[in-house]
Design goal:
alpha+beta; Alpha-Beta Plaits; 4-stranded antiparallel beta sheet; disordered N terminus
Length: 289
């Protein structure tokens, strides 16, 4: 018994090209979505690390004076700890700025006090500076929260840009599918005319195209999602192997929410293709009446 011939012919080279385009758009959209979420993760992690931290710069004093200043800071209300950074800690802190050669000899380094404030009632930088100046120290306290706010704003801008890219790619995919559906409808106009003569309604004809592009969208979305998963896994593995991922860059982790984005992409692509195909066919058929 032979297999019945479908009302719409099997996919051809044009649909193969459409499959590639939709899969590529889904791939880029998933990467943009993961980047948008990664910027949020990076901002949250980095802000949590620096919130409540403060640095005190001491001028015109020696190591002994710095220890005395740290003791004064520790005695202030709202301060949890205060310690003078050692020479090794200073070199490690400034190493990214001076490169692998280290700090050149003869470069004067200020004495720094690392301060941790209490989470419940943190001391502010002005209070610390005033207390040290009252004790005769030439010191300036700087709260890290100021820099954290600037980093959050910068990462927030990047996150909005990534979300905008996702929206743009989604709209592009819908437009491409709508154009391909219209071209397919024109190419199969003789079949559509026969269906109309047989009494088929527009909704039945639209359903044929809708199902075809629904399946194409699912397959293309799955291909794009799997490709994005492979690329993201390579990035995560390389960053963890190197052990030097910057905390100010998007943090790709492949956690539950990242995997959820990857999982819903094929469904979203299929629904978008289905909606675009149905709307295009329905509008085209009504326009010919």
């Amino acid at each position: 018994m032979s297999k019945p011939t479908p009302l719409l012919p099997e996919s051809d080279a044009r649909e193969a090209a459409l499959f590639f385009v939709v899969a590529a758009l889904c791939f880029l959209a998933v990467l943009a979505a993961l980047t948008a979420r990664g910027t949020y993760t990076a901002a949250k992690a980095w802000s949590a690390q620096v919130e409540g931290q403060m640095t005190v710069r001491l001028m015109d004093t020696d190591r002994r004076g710095a220890d005395e200043a740290a003791a004064i800071v520790r005695g202030l209300y709202g301060v949890e700890s205060a310690s003078v950074l050692s020479q090794a800690e200073m070199e490690a802190l400034l190493a990214p700025s001076f490169g692998p050669g280290g700090i050149p000899e003869g470069v004067p380094l200020p004495l720094l006090i690392a301060v941790e404030t209490m989470a419940s009632a943190p001391a502010d930088a002005e209070t610390v500076s005033s207390a040290l100046k009252a004790a005769g120290f030439n010191a300036v306290a700087e709260a890290h929260a100021t820099y954290a706010a600037e980093a959050r704003r910068a990462l927030g801008t990047l996150r909005v840009a990534a979300i905008g890219v996702v929206v743009l790619l989604t709209a592009t995919a819908i437009a491409v599918i709508a154009f391909a559906t219209h071209a397919a409808l024109l190419a199969r106009k003789d079949i559509v005319d026969v269906l109309h003569l047989a009494g088929a309604e527009d909704s039945f004809i639209a359903h044929l195209f809708e199902r075809r592009f629904w399946i194409l969208g699912l397959k293309a979305g799955a291909a794009g999602s799997v490709s994005a998963l492979a690329v993201t896994a390579m990035i995560v593995f390389s960053a963890r192997s190197a052990g030097s991922q910057s905390q100010l860059l998007p943090q790709l982790s492949l956690d539950f929410w990242d995997l959820l984005i990857l999982a819903i992409t094929p469904v979203a692509a299929g629904l978008a293709a289905r909606w675009a195909a149905r709307g295009t066919v329905t509008h085209s058929l009504r326009a010919t009446l």
